[in-house]
Amino acid sequence: MTPQGTYLSAMPKGVKKPQLPRPPLGRWLSWTALALSALFLLLPILVIVPLSFGNQRYLAFPDGGWSLRHYATLFDGAWLVSILQSLGLALVVGALSTALAFLFATGIWLQRRFRTVLTLIVLLPMIVPQVVSAMSIYYLDARLGILDNLLGVGFGHLLMALPYSVIAMLVAYARLDQSLYKASRSLGAGLWPTLWHVLLPNVRGGILGGFFMGFVMSWEEVVVTLFTSGLNVVTLPKRIWDGLRYNLDPAIAAVSTLMIVLTLAVMLLRMYLERRQPPS
Predict the structure, then answer these.
(1) pLDDT tens digits, one per residue of 59-70
(2) DSSP-H helix ranges across the chain
(3) pTM surpassing 0.85?
(4) Which of 121, 136, 163, 259 places its Cα 20 to 30 Å from the Cα of 265?
(5) Residue 69: Cβ within 10 Å count
(6) 75 touches 142 (CB < 8 A)
(7) What burial class does residue 64 get, using C-beta atoms within 10 Å of its C-beta: 0-12 exposed, 13-18 middle, 19+ buried?
(8) Are 69 and 55 in contact (CB under 8 A)?
């Protein structure tokens, strides 16, 4: 029995027991709506997990036993090549988009002239429909002779990922006082030492966020990849697309489960790192 219940039971007879406050109906409705919304969003994702442990040669729920046969196919042959291609592209695109975003955000933070116009130009790939951007990148890659290779596909991924890295860097610079830069320059520090020792440590949150966004955008990019690649470059999203379109490969369930686990791990790691950062 709880202390509150002991107190109420020990009250003398004839004394009216106080009414315990009841949670309002609106709170229960809010929690119910939240739970139903979460279930609606997560159920299609969670269904794929038991499918990945099926023991059949086709995509089906486990029938009498669980198996890792679909996971084994990911580390042999074409699936492994696609995973390595996507991972390499995502790392390079994430690093390049973060570096370019840092330079762009630093420039318009120091020189505010034409800031709105330049920012709008950089963010155009987010505004223009993705199919239109993919067609433009396709014709540009064809003209440059880099169609269906890692350079051409990576160039397209970089154009699509750069706006998201720029937004992360702009948010970081919006909270930075420009007097830090002026004080460093007035004390005799050059431009590059000021960038390295003053600005870079103060916007490291934006750098981590920009790399994360660039990595994710390249890792999951499929529309631009379909336009700019053929037989030589088959990234993981494209192989998943081909598997869904032609033969419904059961390995798709396994790779989807691994991507869900990886996404959750990265999100938890990022939350942990943000908690460890000292308040600015």
Answers:
(1) 777 777 777 878
(2) 3-9, 25-52, 69-72, 78-110, 115-122, 124-127, 130-144, 150-174, 179-186, 191-194, 200-202, 204-219, 223-228, 236-242, 251-276
(3) no
(4) 163
(5) 14
(6) no
(7) exposed
(8) yes
